[in-house]
Amino acid sequence: MIFIIQVYGGMLLAAMGRTLLMTLLSLVFAMVIGMIFGLMNVVHNRFFNCIGTIYVDAVRGVPLIVLAYFIYFGMPSAIKGLGIAGFRLNGLQAGTIALSLNCGAYMAEIIRAGIESVDRGQMEAGRSLGLSYSSCMALIVVPQAVRTMIPSIINQFIITLKDTSILSVIGFPELTNVGKTAIGNTLRPLEGWAVVGLMYMIVIVTLSKLAKRVERRVNRGR
User: Fold this and answer.
1) pLDDT grade for 81, boundaries at 50, 70 and 90
2) What CATH number is attached to the domain comprising 111?
3) Model confidence over 187-221: pLDDT tens digits?
4) CB 139: neighbour CB atoms within 10 A?
5) What number is the average pLDDT over the span 147-155?
């Protein structure tokens, strides 16, 4: 294990940095996607409800690895079929899109549940003061819902971080992919995967502790 760390420690740390970067980018885009489709699922409009439900069900029904293959290989092929040559997505771009779409579906459900957890009387009180539905949502309901959503958002960040390992199949040099390379070069699978697992564990346990601490603070603040 010490040999792996000495020789490939720098590469593995750089790979962890890329893993965290992709996770963070995906979570930011997923928050936007989740907010859009989460709101679609709570507004009193069947058309928007239907769109939101279709997106969530469709994306959650497709394995992430299939979604990654579709975006990395399928999208360039489709665009080439439209007569646009030379279009190509690199691993970071394709991986971020795939993770964002996947995480966005779960974020939509987190946001929907958070909004629905706010007492309906809050909306009624705002409307009685003359505020529009959108103003009530933006100024009253969503700020209260965010407090209950934060622990779930951190947990989703952890899940997305672990899901980045799947993207090694499209060649993105995240931690699992670089770890595989190091193990192939040293022929030390036990030590190599132990180091990779330990690196994941340190980051994920730290985030899990943070999620629990935030959840306790939120519960105390109610």
Assistant:
1) confident
2) 1.10.3720.10
3) 888 889 999 999 999 999 988 888 778 777 766 65
4) 11
5) 84
**Tokens describing residue 75:** 């999208």
One-letter amino acid of 22: M
Can you list the alpha helix ranges (DSSP code H) found in the chain? Answer: 2-40, 46-60, 64-69, 75-81, 91-117, 120-128, 133-136, 142-163, 175-186, 189-221
Amino acid symbol at 193 = W
Q: How many domains does the chain have?
A: 1
For residue 221, what are the CA distances in angstroms to 123, 211, 218?
Answer: 21, 15, 5
The owner of tokens 């893993």 is 19
Sign of CA pseudo-dihedral 57, 60, 63, 65:
positive
Which pair of tokens denotes residue 102? Answer: 């996947």
- In a domain? residue 116: yes
